[in-house]
Design brief:
Pfam families (chain B): TPP_enzyme_C
Strand order of the largest sheet of chain A: 1-3
GO molecular function, one term (chain B): oxidoreductase activity
Radius of gyration of chain A: 17 Å
Organism (chain B): Ruminiclostridium sufflavum DSM 19573
Number of helices of chain B: 11
Largest interface: B-C, 46 and 41 residues
Distance between the termini of chain B: 18 Å
CATH topology of chain B: Rossmann fold
CATH class of chain B: Alpha Beta
Radius of gyration of chain B: 18 Å
Helix content of chain A: 10-25%
Order of helices and strands of chain A: EEEEHEEHE
Number of strands of chain A: 7
CATH topology of chain A: Alpha-Beta Plaits
Number of domains of chain B: 1
CATH architecture of chain A: 2-Layer Sandwich
Oligomer: heterotrimer
Order of helices and strands of chain B: HEHEEEHEHHEHEHEHHEEHHE
Structural class of chain A: alpha+beta
Strand content of chain B: 15-25%
Chains: A alpha+beta, B alpha/beta, C alpha/beta
Keywords (chain B): Oxidoreductase, Pyruvate
CATH superfamily of chain B: Thiamin diphosphate (ThDP)-binding fold, Pyr/PP domains
Protein name (chain B): Pyruvate ferredoxin oxidoreductase beta subunit
Chain lengths: 96, 297, 395
């Protein structure tokens, strides 16, 4: 199962587990704020070779209609995807 | 047909973690779990991957996962495997992900014990060549010459003076059913090895070189490239050990320049030409041994 | 099996066998070895269906048990002395993770100087690590504790690891007649281990995580409450145990002839047997003396002690331990119970039996004799009268 963002953030004593055990893949914060630059997929150049998807340390690039798309909630903007792309289909844009 | 980007499980199991941007270790963990799938129980000792993945209530493993003590990756894997088997549960992978310090220093005793018992576990060492989680201190897998916060490069001592321990061959010397080296620069090779390991009974060990931009002093987008280059220049190699023999999986046609590889990283910036020559000599000696002792594909 | 002639180690092993642990991981250390050797035999001959893991250290013994417990298996390990200290990191790991692992500790002195004989400095040095700590007096109690330990540890409201302590050699290696219950009886006493604190393919979980300053106190508070809850669960377990096996235990403490006692000696472990004999002799001489044996020291019997000591004129704590630079750890704990209950009586501390030094009947007589002075002193037994330091006089 892919970890995903939850609405409920356990805080009160009664909401916390009794042991150090909790539902797997329970996310309460995003990583978007870490980013200075963002990868932008140029769909006309993307061949869907999936090397960016394969090499992303955060797994934020996913298959989308034969090409790829980015989950910007969790992308940290490392730029590995841009560098790995043989088709120059990814450009890094400064975050405003 | 081997696993590739196209055939790999699309599910993500390690997601939303707080690893540094461009982290090589997190890529190794992510890919291995995609190969092994949802019936993986991951054991991670204190270290980068546990520190970035298990901060309650932000829990970044989609599969069953647990932090072990720093020294206890292998022994906890043993317990997980035995505990499930004792309850009649099968069809799972007990997989450990420990760093270089957690493997070659503090965890080597437990790892050796697990291999000795031939426990049915997969142990993956993501080697970023120092204690990165605590702030880049030397481990026994820090290579010759590297500057770390405990092996500073000054006028008396130029960084770490000892070569990297050869964990792959130490593990092989146990007569382990399967061991391999890998690099995050060659993910198809790594995926094949993880898949192969998952089908072998007994203890499996995969040692994957996983550059750390923070500790190596490289740009965040260079992680994969530098992990390719370390293999191309001959300072790391892709190999397997099984049935009592070593096999080299990839032989660079001609080594690329060691100096170029080293000089890209701030941890090696201080090395003199003489130091670099020392690195070249030890590389060449290693490759002579590989040619002597390994089956070359 | 009925009545058998067993050592403390063997009796404990039979108790563990009856509890049907699924994973046993252990590393040998004198004087614990026989318990794991016996369990190996029981696994080998098919009496016990368990995975027996030959780990390469005590740290791995407990780390392995934690791994097995974290997937819902009932687990056992055993150690002693240096081994307990070597696994110390895993002690707080097991308790903080709320894993109900049972461990037998053969009480033994800790180096330096090297010494393989019994004292209780090993387990008492680990009092704060979040484990239930029980101390057996004899082989029968050892077996019974082994069986009850899982009932208490695995109870939902407790969820804590359980350390059962047996005095090295004096108890672990001494043979006594022990009643070994039938498997069916044991099964009717101890339910199978059921927990949600585990990794589960139906409900994947992340375990043993970090919790920062915001949540850490809450987790530690819950752990504390779990250990306190053990008090009522121990009572519940003993009641059920008595119904099935006909042997009634007495909770956190055992009071022996204390009802009208002016002078009470408090101790723990196998030495209580000798103290009981001495109490009987002194009682026969008309002296109003009694004994309290601490069966459990975590959770600590604060209220029970206060109740039992409220009419005493003076008490002494005899323990095989010293917290260097202060006093015996048990003494500190007992005094705290008295203070909280507003009981102001003289209390003295006798540190004896270190490194296996014999505590004699004469020593116990001396303690009861000195109690009549109703003063507070701290002193070592076993120095042959050569001691320079006696609290409060000092050096």
């Amino acid at each position: 199962m892919k970890p995903f963002l939850r609405k409920e953030i356990p805080a009160a004593l009664s909401e916390l587990p009794d042991a150090t055990a909790y539902e797997a893949g329970y996310l309460v914060t995003k990583n978007a704020g870490w980013r200075n630059v963002r990868p932008v997929i140029e769909l006309d150049k993307c061949t869907g070779c999936l090397q960016c998807y394969l090499h992303c340390p955060d797994g934020v690039i996913f298959k989308d209609k034969g090409k790829v798309a980015v989950d910007y909630d969790f992308c940290k903007g490392c730029g590995i995807c841009k560098k790995i792309c043989k088709y120059a289909a990814i450009r890094m844009e400064a975050e405003k | 047909m081997g696993l590739s980007a196209r055939t790999l499980n699309e599910e993500e199991f390690f997601y939303g973690h707080k690893a540094c941007a461009g982290c090589g270790g997190s890529l190794a963990v992510r890919i291995a779990l995609k190969v092994l799938g949802e019936r993986s129980v991951a054991v991670l000792p204190a270290g980068c991957m546990s520190a970035v993945g298990f901060n309650f209530p932000q829990l970044c493993f989609g599969n069953n996962a647990i932090i072990s003590t720093f020294a206890g990756t292998a022994s906890m894997l043993t317990g997980v495997e035995a505990g499930l088997r004792a309850q009649g549960i099968d069809n799972f992978h007990a997989v450990g992900f420990a760093g270089d310090g957690g493997t070659a220093d503090i965890g080597i005793q437990a790892l050796s014990g697990a291999i000795d018992r031939n426990d049915d576990i997969i142990y993956i060492c993501y080697d970023n060549e120092a204690y990165m989680n605590t702030g880049i201190q030397k481990s026994s897998l820090t290579p010759f010459g590297a500057k770390t916060t405990t092996t500073p490069a000054g006028s008396n001592i130029r960084g770490n003076l000892r070569p990297k321990k050869n964990m792959f061959e130490i593990v092989a010397a146990h007569g382990i059913p399967y061991a391999a080296t890998a690099s995050i620069g060659y993910l198809n090779d790594f995926m094949r090895k993880v898949e192969k390991a998952s089908k072998i009974k007994g203890t499996k060990y995969i040692h994957i070189l996983a550059p750390c931009p923070t500790g190596w002093g490289t740009a965040t987008d260079e992680t994969v490239e530098i992990a390719k280059e370390v293999v191309e220049c001959g300072l790391w190699y892709l190999a397997e050990y099984e049935n009592g023999g070593f096999t080299l999986n990839y032989r660079p046609k001609e080594f690329t320049d060691v100096a170029a590889y080293l000089k890209k990283q701030s941890r090696f910036k201080h090395l003199t030409e003489e130091d670099i020559q020392t690195v070249r000599y030890s590389r060449d000696a290693k490759w002579e041994a590989i040619y002597r002792n390994f089956k070359i594909i | 099996m009925g009545k058998c002639f067993l050592s403390g180690n063997e009796a404990f092993a039979y108790g563990i066998c009856l509890a049907r642990p699924q994973v046993i991981s252990a590393y040998p250390i004198t004087p614990q070895t026989i318990v794991v050797e016996k369990l190996s035999e029981l696994v080998e001959d098919g009496s016990l269906k368990a995975e027996f893991i030959h780990v390469e250290s005590e740290h791995s013994a407990l780390s392995c048990a934690i791994g097995a417990s974290a997937v819902g298996a009932r687990t056992f390990t055993a150690t002693s002395s240096q081994g307990l200290l070597y696994m110390a990191e895993c002690l707080t790991y097991a308790s903080g993770g709320r894993f109900p692992i049972v461990m037998m500790n053969a009480n033994r002195s800790t180096a330096l100087p090297w010494n393989i004989y019994g004292d209780q400095r090993d387990s008492l040095s680990q009092l704060d690590c979040g484990w239930i700590q029980a101390y057996a007096e004899n082989a029968q109690e050892s077996l019974d504790l082994a069986l009850m330990s899982y009932y208490v540890a695995e109870h939902r409201e407790v969820s804590a690891p359980f350390m059962a302590n047996l005095d090295g050699f004096v108890l672990t290696h001494t043979y006594e007649v022990v009643e070994v219950p039938a498997k069916e009886q044991a099964d009717s006493f101890l339910p199978p281990f059921v927990t949600e604190n585990k990794m589960d393919f139906g409900h994947p979980r992340n375990l043993a995580f970090s919790a920062g300053p915001e949540h850490n106190t809450a987790f530690k508070y819950k752990e504390h409450i779990g250990l306190l809850n053990a008090k009522k669960v121990i009572a519940e377990a003993e009641e059920k145990f008595a119904r099935i096996f006909g042997r009634q235990y007495t909770g956190l403490i055992e009071s022996y002839r204390t009802e009208d006692a002016d002078y009470i000696l408090i101790t723990l472990g196998s030495i209580a047997g000798l103290v009981k004999e001495k109490v009987d002799k002194l009682r026969a001489e008309g002296k109003r003396v009694g004994l309290i044996r601490l069966r459990y020291i975590r959770p600590f019997p604060n209220e029970e002690l206060a109740g039992a000591l409220k009419n005493a004129k003076a008490i002494a704590v005899l323990e095989k331990d010293v917290s260097f630079g202060n006093e015996g750890t048990v003494f500190t704990n007992v005094n705290s119970a008295l203070h909280k209950a507003g009981i102001s009586i003289a209390s003295s501390n006798y540190i004896g039996g270190l490194g296996g030094k014999n505590i004699s009947e004469a020593d116990i007589e001396k303690i009861f004799e000195e109690l009549k002075e109703e003063k507070t002193t701290i002193q070592f037994l076993g120095l042959g009268g050569a001691e320079k330091w006696v609290y409060p006089q000092g050096l």
